[in-house]
Specification:
5-stranded parallel β-sheet; 2 domains; Oxidized Rhodanese, domain 1; 5 strands
Amino acid sequence: MTYRSIGKILLVAFLTFSLAGLCLCLGCTRTPPIEGPGNDDPLIDDPENTEDADLPAVEIPRANLIQPDELNALILSEHYVVIDARAFLYFVKGSIPGAINIPLRFVERRQAEIPRNRLVVFVATDALELSQLYGLLIKLGFDPANIRMLEGGIPAWEAAGYVAEDNELPPCPR
């Protein structure tokens, strides 16, 4: 094998890895349209991860549901925390101002980040996810008196005339 052949092989390898790196970088800033359940895009919902599929749906007591106007009043008082339990790409498209994103599938692993001694309002994708989240929180020992679930989610928030703030995607690692 000649030096010229080795040089060509190295050049092709370099270009291949450079292109792969570029594709990965562009991939992390790609924001596909979110059309709700049934979207087959793996960036929105990892089909290999079925952790939250096994969570039972439970009935949420009326006292634990909160309406957008009530949440807005809480925002003015600053005695609350909002946890957005939707997948990250839903969160990026718009959420309650100041919300923290802890997707449902990570709630159990990241429960230490959820305050237990103050009011926490949760946002989910739909009613099923909201009821699964409520059941999980109770199972994890959270006090129901400190849990509120935003009824209707972001669509209800926006329908009430409030703004869902866009969140930035993190930059590609370099």
